[in-house]
Amino acid sequence: xxxxxxxxxxxxxxxxxxxxxxxxxxxxxxxxxxxxxxxxxxxxxxxxxxxxxxxxxxxxxxxxxxxxxxxxxxxxxxxxxxxxxxxxxxxxxxxxxxxxxxxxxxxxxxxxxxxxxxxxxxxxxxxxxxxxxxxxxxxxxxxxxxxxxxxxxxxxxxxxxxxxxxxxxxxxxxxxxxxxxxxxxxxxxxxxxxxxxxxxxxxxxxxxxxxxxxxxxxxxxxxxxxxxxxxxxxxxxxx
Length: 239
Ligand code: NJP
Known about the structure:
Blueprint: E1 6-10, H1 15-26, E2 30-35, H2 39-49, E3 54-58, H3 64-78, E4 83-86, H4 101-129, E5 132-137, H5 150-170, E6 175-182, H6 205-217, E7 226-229
Parallel strand pairs: 1-2, 1-4, 2-3, 4-5, 5-6, 6-7
Helix pairs in contact: 1-6, 3-4, 4-5
């Protein structure tokens, strides 16, 4: 259970982030949800109608000021942050020669700089409490490269390195960090729609929420470093 825990979930307007926020609500957590579009307020309203205590924050995770402001507002409302879920992410899949500099910069800004900014912003509050859990939704392609996705793959490899390094820096403050590395999930990712028939066998958003919840509610004496999960039907090389 996450009773009385304060959880910040980025990218919670829809997709996996919304499912994580919903699951946290049912576990008794108080929520601050972040998204870059106005949709975050609709999602916040929906959660509230279902009984959640929720602060909806429209902020771009790649913008330093907006991230700092969002965490400050969370502290003003709740007084602490126990859990951060770095879920916001974007992706596109094309050859390296087709990839523009603007696309490269954008995907790095959201997927990598965003994780840096949100993590950096919550650490002072977690250090004060001498406790905290940071779960980052990376990807299976953060552990194994795929063709026609070099920019996205590079962001997720960078995320793995960042989390691995910071985890060792903050361990002495009782702060634990892990990554959830999923294969294909049925969401709105890459401009797609949730529920499309070709995604029938893919991971469901609730599968991701379950993994995140396990990490966040694990006993204080342990850290779940990494969970990798795939649809059974997905082909991928195994180590
Ligand atoms: O994607 P989608 P997922 N600042 O598009 C938000 C990883 N993953 O749920 O900004 C703040 O349904 C956006 O909200 P809004 C993936 O890399 C996925 O699949 O309001 N928020 C929305 O809520 C990502 O890290 C697959 O439009 C920003 C959310 O992010 C995570 O799973 C496979 C933002 C995206 O929802 C969740 O993505 C895999 C910004 N700048 C890893 N930009 C997969 N789906 O197959 C976007 O291996 N958002």
